[in-house]
Structures are given as structure tokens and as C-alpha cells.
Amino acid sequence: MKYVLKRLALGVLILWASASFVFFLMRLLPSDPVEIILGENARPAQIEELKRELGLDKPLWVQYINFLSGLTRADLGRSLISNERVTDLILSHLPYTGTLALFAIILTVLLSFPLAILATIKEKADLPVFIVSTAGLAIPNFWLGPLLILFLSVKLRIFPVSGAETPAHYILPAITLATALSAYLVKIIRKSIKEESNKPYILALSSRGLSRNRIFLYHILPNAMIPIITIVGLETGALLTGTIITERVFSIPGIGTLLIKAIGERDYPLVQGLVLFIAAVYVLINLLVDLSYPLIDPRIKLGGDLEKR
Known about the structure:
By secondary structure, this protein is an all-alpha fold. 76% of the residues lie in helices and 2% in strands. It is built from 13 helices and 2 strands, in the order αααααααααααααββ.
């Protein structure tokens, strides 16, 4: 419990730092939401009136205190553009990003684990899997996405071009995201299993007459899961930010699309709320990953650090 409380306190500090950073960074950008809303031909009186309505006429430190005060009440404010609650906007777009992330992480696991295990069990498959995973890491999302649309949507008409109306709409963007994620995870799984396979206790188990499959399933794979679980957790969190480009390519109205739109419109409260939400997801996932370690390996205990008993 002490460890959890310590991590939660650290998480709160990280969220405060993230929120403060984006608060001041947004105000350093050229132009402001008032200019965007009213246009270049707006009269000075109109500009001043709208600034008063939006609270942007107050000194920066007053705006910052009001922002922090709202956070203590779990109030992210209202969008300067649409006047909708930031929380409502995030919740309305979250299902699209959540669905895409779910499709992508499932596809990543289904691709990476069999390939990595095949590469460690079959020596002849090691080099081809290494080449495929390296190629997957080298392909950027902004290139792969349009390529998949061109061949599988436009030419072959197998999948929809864009949108998020049906599960079929998520397949191509999920493939786009899962390609690089799977390639990276294959390398991690392959390395972790090989390192575990070369430890002395594996030789001792073999000398006792245990079958190779039994050793792999009950000893090598469970003990190799710690770094694998860590990477899967981090990749799950990264999908919230990594979907920004993919959502734009496939016209999916998720968190990434909303963030890009909010930055373009200088919608301060919405950008701050989205960044805070993404940071909170990262903090939560990292905490859950750490808490899962003792369940995977009972020798690990949670203290100031992760320690071996």
C-alpha cells in the first residue's frame, strides 16, 4: 500500500507538471483563440469584449491559478470554440480511439508472439523474422496508411477508405499501427526468451529429463514475461498519442484528431484537458504494469523499487 501511495503521489506530480507545461506553452504560440474566432477584420472593441467573456483578459498568473483551481474540482473547463465541457468532448471522442487502440494491441499481440516464439524455437526462422521485424520498424505510419488505402480500399475495394462506422473501418488503421508495434515487440520477446533460455537453471531442468516444450511453457516463457509485459503496457499507452497521424489519415474522429483540431484553433482548455488525460493514462498504465509484476513472478516485491526477495 505504501508503494501504491508513493506512486500515486508521483503520478499527481507528473500530471501537474504536464498540465503546467502545456498551459504556458500554448500561450507562447503565435495568434490566440480570439483572433481565430473573430477573424482578421474584427474591431478592437469586439476583441476586448470576447477576451473578457473567455477570461483571457486576466493576467497570466490569475488564469493559471484558475486553471489549477478547476483541476482540484475535476473541472477541465469549457472549450473556447464550442463552449462544450472539455470532459464531455473527451468522452465523446474516446470510444473511437479506444476501439482503434484495442484492435491494434490485439493484432500486435497476435502477430508478435507467434513470430518471436517461432524465431526462438526454429533456428531457420530467426533471420527471416529479424528481417521482417526490422522492415516493420522502418515503415512510417504516414506512408503505410495511404498505401493500404490505395491498394486494399481504392483498388481492391476490400475495406472502407475512411470513417469509423463499422468494425471493418478499424482494420486498416489497426494494421497501420500494429506493424511498427509488432516489429518492436517481436525483438523484445525474442531477446527476452533467448536470454532466459541461456540461463543455467534451464540446463539443469533439461538434465532432469523435462521435455523441451514443458521447460519452455512452464519456465522460460513465464520468467521472460516481465520485460514483455512492460513493453506491452507502454505500447498501449503510446497508442493514445501514436494514433494522432493514423486517425487523421483514416478520418477517425478520435482523441488524436480532436487534439490536432484543438491546437490549430488555440483552444487552450481543450488542449490542456487532452494532454492531462493522455498523461493520466500513461501514469495509470505504468502503475498497473508495476503492480502486475508480483503476480507474474512471486519473487518480486513492491517497495521503494522493484526488488528481488
